[in-house]
Amino acid sequence: MSYLTDRKRASGMGSAKTGTEHHWSMTISSGALLLLIPLFVFTFGPMLGASYEEVTTYFARPFPAVVAGLTIIVTFKHFAGGVQALIEDYVHGVAQKIAIAVMTYLSYAAMAVGLYAVVRLAL
Amino acid sequence: MADVNRGNRPLSPHLTIYRPQLTSITSILTRITGNALLISSLLVVWWFLAAASSPEYFAIANGVLTSWFGDIAMTLSLWGLWYHSLAGVRHLIWDQGVGLDLETAYKLGYAVIGGSFLLTLLTIAVI
């Protein structure tokens, strides 16, 4: 049984160099979400199941619209970072790169659609 | 790095050998809730898109989100959202280098679980 592996196998395989940045970005977005999520839950929640007229009137107001817009931006940014960490843990090789790419694109696409809808409701 | 030859070394025991504990369960639930919230996030975005499009489209999306399926999905998501938020706060505390001892970690774990149910019931009561 060989307890030591080749040094060569380890060289160049050290820090990915961007881990701190990723962690800090998740910290910043989580701090923002701690404020945004309660605001969103209690503005969006009462509107779920309300009539079309009520919903369009409500989200034409500045506060609910800005809360919804900000929540959509930060949530999908936070999700893209979180799902990346998930994929990096369980998927490897080419499949990992493809999975991260697909989920990143999905996150930003959902963010764009959500923002488009909120802006259209607000204006 | 599954494709790297690690040599014929003894490996540390893997996940399945350990007895589930409060710390490990609350940890994996943080990941599960966070990633599962994608489903309701997309449903909510779809609801906004429908509301911004037309009354007819809104009726469809609003109908799906308030159907029995929608009620179950949104209620589970609400719990997942509060759980993930509280578990996130626990991580922010841990990031400061405090509360990492076993006793505090367990207390925080119970607080996260209890708090998530409490906040869910509170939210349903208010909304």
What layout of secondary structure does this protein have?
The complex is a heterodimer of chains A (123) and B (127).
Chain A: H1 7-10, H2 19-44, H3 52-58, H4 62-90, H5 94-122
Chain B: H1 22-53, H2 55-65, H3 68-95, H4 102-126
Helix pairs in contact in B: 1-2, 1-3, 3-4
Structural write-up:
With 123 residues, chain A is an all-alpha fold. Chain A has helices spanning 7-10, 19-44, 52-58, 62-90, 94-122. Helix content of chain A is 77%, strand content 0%. In chain A, helix 2 (19-44) packs across helix 4 and helix 4 (62-90) runs antiparallel to helix 5 (94-122). With 127 residues, chain B is an all-alpha fold. Chain B has a single domain (22-126), classed as 3 helical TM bundles of succinate and fumarate reductases (Up-down Bundle). In chain B, 76% of the residues lie in helices and 0% in strands. Chain B contains four helices and no strands. Chain B has helices at residues 22-53, 55-65, 68-95, 102-126. The longest helix of chain B is centred in the N-terminal third of the chain and has 32 residues, at 22-53. At the A-B interface, helix 2, helix 3, helix 4 and helix 5 of A face helix 1, helix 2 and helix 3 of B.
Give a quick summary of the entry.
The complex is a heterodimer of chains A (123) and B (127). Chain A is mainly alpha-helical and 123 residues long.
